[in-house]
Specification:
By secondary structure, this protein is α+β, with helices and mostly antiparallel strands. The protein has 3 helices and 5 strands; from the N terminus they run αβββαββα. It has a 5-stranded antiparallel sheet with strand order 3-2-1-4-5. Strand 4 and strand 5 form a beta hairpin. The relative contact order is 0.16.
Length: 133
Amino acid sequence: MKDFWHHLLPLAGTFHYFIAAVIGAAAVAIRKYVQRIRENRAAMWPSADGLVQTAIVKKSQYGSWVDVSYRYYAQQEYRYGKYRRHFARKAAADSFAEAIRGRSVQVRYREDKPGESVLLERDLQMTGILQMG
């Protein structure tokens, strides 16, 4: 049995990039699934007008991310939230960041915990910030 693993070890290097890509794709899929659950839950929450303060593009080995920070006013207080979106291509991430930076957005927040907020993809699509495709 020890000899068996000894012969498989050189093959592990060959499949390293494939395994890393599968793990990366699984992480993105899980993140999208969790985001979809949060959005479905938040669809009935009250909404507030928000303003995007920053949209920063971050490049990774498996694509690019845009980290968005926004501010909104709920229950007589300014509050802050974050939104993150993954893109396969950096050019698409750059376009999204440019389109959302400084824009007004619709923010959904929990009535019992107004500091918890979500940007819904459908709200971003309706404003034209997020294009389908």
